[in-house]
Write a structure and sequence with these properties.
The chain has 117 residues and is mainly alpha-helical. The protein has 2 helices and 2 strands; from the N terminus they run H-H-E-E. It binds zinc ion.
Length: 117
């Protein structure tokens, strides 16, 4: 009898975990779809912007490649990525770009942690 109750409890726990994993999987799938949708939209917008710049301003693909390379190298690494170096806000601990002197979340001074609103 006790064994039966123990087994039922374990089955219930396993079922619960499986349902939770399934829900998480669905949420992640939806997030990926939304990100793919946004990436497609950004690619389309970028292509349209470059087509306009090319047609109206005469900017070539070589010009674009040179600018991409210049911006890519701004962080010292030619890796096809834009990296933003961050500091941690001394007040709220969120990441803040090293270019900013104030935290965009809480308004604190990055060097002192003091709020001077
Ligand atoms: Zn902050």
């Amino acid at each position: 009898m006790l064994w039966e109750i123990y087994q039922q409890t374990k089955i219930h726990q396993a079922r619960s975990q499986a349902e939770s994993a399934s829900r998480k999987s669905s949420e992640i799938r939806e997030t990926v779809w939304r990100l793919e949708d946004r990436a497609d939209r950004m690619a389309l917008t970028t292509m349209a912007m470059f087509a306009l710049m090319s047609e109206r301003l005469g900017i070539s693909e070589a010009d674009l490649e040179a600018k991409i390379r210049e911006i890519d190298l701004a962080d010292g690494k030619l890796d096809g990525k834009v990296r933003v170096e961050t500091n941690e806000c001394p007040s709220c601990s969120r990441p803040v770009s090293k270019r900013h002197k104030k935290c965009m979340y809480c308004g604190s001074d990055i060097n002192t942690g003091l709020k001077n609103l």
